[in-house]
Amino acid sequence: MKLPLRWYSISLPVLLALLLASLPAVAKQTAAPGTPVPDCFEDWWQVQIKEIASRAEGPEALLPLRVLESLMETAADPFEIVAALSRIRADRRTHPLVAAEIDIRLLDWDLRRGDLAAADARLARLGTLRDFEISGPFARREDAQASLSAGDAGAWRAVRTGANGILPLDSLLHPSSKGFALAVFHLRAEKTIELALRFGADDRSDVWLDGRQIAAPDGMHGLAFDQHAVFFRVSKGVHRLAFIVEQDAIAWRLFARLTTPGGSRLPSTVTLGSLADLGSPLLAADTRRESRPVRGDTVATLLEKTQRRKPWIKAHLALDQGSRQLPDRESADAVA
Questions:
Q1: b/e for 38-51, b at 16 or more Cβ within 10 A?
Q2: ∠ CA 144-146-189 to the nearest 5 degrees?
Q3: Which residues pair with 64 in a beta bridge?
Q4: CA 307 to CA 227: how far, in whole Å?
């Protein structure tokens, strides 16, 4: 049975199939003189591993990673590939966003073999938000906003995500169609710091920081890893971040992680927890806009930078956006 971590649109398998069908011919045409073309899958996947490792400092590594992932189960021992990818992920030269893409794929394999300790460690390394307070469902977005502003503690319920890091709102709130849910978490910063909140939601979600909306992605879609990202700054103290997750029908889910703007793990100066655990009062709501925008990286922005030097990357960018169920770059815009 496939786990719900395979979050791809229907177009992605078609694109990969076309790509895979062309690989033998492309390999024979582009291989350097004297370079043998792999004749069996075991040799082929090792070539792909070398390709991923050689490109791991940037987003170009994701193309061979996606191709390899689509055929991992064909290997005599898929966990040999898991081990090889783990070594690339652990390499300090690997870009943190590439390492994250490897981690989210290997999380599926941790769960397949029932290694919950490895899955928990992987989610922690990703900066995955595991503990939330939720409330709802609400019939209107305005009702969810009013509840968030009121901060009625009696309406909130503490919940934890599943082993895959997904918050299954459709299993926690009823009715689970045509509505809105609030999912809140708190953090304490020991000093002013810039952060990145990377998230995916089914069907969509707004993000609020201390009473101020900081992200409002367009469009309804299924869940995908790092579907959206918003970059922001917090001052010293305790802050509340909230998702208002919209639901139409069927799945109603959220996956979110907190990192530095460049994609690295949070420093020890940032602590997540409940208000009681953090031991400090919540800072007053602040609806002022950022005076200086916070800049950060996503796979899409890194690919766009690379595209200036290598025009063929445009196709890679389209594939990446399709895998995140985003029709175009405008869908990932955020209010900062």
A1: beeeeebbebbbeb
A2: 85
A3: none
A4: 20
Within 13 A of 89's CA, how many CA atoms are on the CB side? 19
- Under the banding of pLDDT at 50, 70 and 90, the label for residue 152 is low
How large is the average pLDDT for residues 78-104?
A: 96
CA 181 – CA 170 distance, rounded (Å): 10
Kindly give, in sequence order, each residue whose CB lies less than 8 Å from that of residue 131, ignoring residues fewer than 6 positions away.
158, 159, 160, 161, 185, 272, 273, 274
Tokens of 309: 């030097």
My answer on whether omega of the bond before 311 falls inside 30° of 0, hence cis, is: no
Cα 27 from Cα 17, distance rounded (Å): 16
Please indicate whether residue 153 or residue 24 has the higher confidence score (pLDDT).
153
pLDDT digits (tens, 9 = 90+) for 30-59: 334 444 545 687 888 999 999 999 999 999
Q: What is the pLDDT of residue 4?
A: 43
pTM of the model: 0.83
